[in-house]
């Protein structure tokens, strides 16, 4: 086993392929893995990389491959269907687990294996991509600047770009489910788009609405701030339409509607093309408030989300392979600090108040 080798499961997906293509820039050699030989074999041949073909539910094959590596970068979602199998195998083989998940429920599930991971001497670090590296780092920076903060708002938006099949399918699986916020330290249900506001991202002022982003789970672990809301950019017209969602959530949750949406997703391009990714910009805004009403605001601009995910996940894998890890469940900023995001090419950050 080479010291720079890791397992990349889900290399057949849009984001997995981006990670595979970028790995050499970090002097890393992934073993490409997944269930679709017709996609993985040509990619492995082109990149001159080793590969393995097996189903996630083939536990014997999964364990055998994990015994070859120190780290797995899990990029095969939806993670609510795939993360647990991978984590069980990692605990058995002593393999560090990293993923690019953004689902609150998955973060909360993985957190339950904290003690088991510590005992096994491995780190479980979900959210190593755009979900949630930049927002997690902003959250920790705000906490460090305002240690007595009791409320945290995080917002993100993208100028240009689009979403991949995998991300869109994950969203489709959640459609009609509503949202979540953190209140007094507890995750509670809240209507999707319950709140809307205008945010000055620096480059542009955009309208955002509340959504159940992964930081509802992770930012609390990282900062301990008891009240957390997360937002994403959306047009005011769409926001107004979503106010009617309570009338239709029952319909949106049906398999008929979800399968129809997934069929439409599969008819679209796999994700943004190279030019779209190059020209798109990700924006992050965060604000912390204490009981006296004092506010601190941080703004961040970064590469397009999938590009950022490829860089950030590989940076984290590289750190682990170099022996830089904390056993147990970790969030990106908790493990590597508020400046982790600044290791990503093209990131700019400013404190504005």
Distance between the termini: 49 Å
Mean pLDDT: 88
Structural class: alpha/beta
Extended strand count: 16
CATH homologous superfamily grouping of the largest domain: Dihydrodipicolinate Reductase, domain 2
What is the class of the largest domain in the CATH system? Alpha Beta
- Overall spatial form: globular
Helix content: 25-40%
Largest sheet strand order: 3-2-1-4-5-6-15
Total domain count: 2
Main sheet, how many strands, which sense, barrel? 7 strands, parallel
Which consecutive residue ranges, at least 5 long each, have pLDDT under 50? 162-176
Q: Would you give the CATH topology of the largest domain?
A: Dihydrodipicolinate Reductase, domain 2
Describe what you observe in this structure.
By secondary structure, the protein is an alpha/beta fold. Helix content is 40%, strand content 24%. The protein has a 7-stranded parallel β-sheet, sandwiched between helices. The N and C termini lie far apart (49 Å). Mean pLDDT is 88; it is low at 162-176.
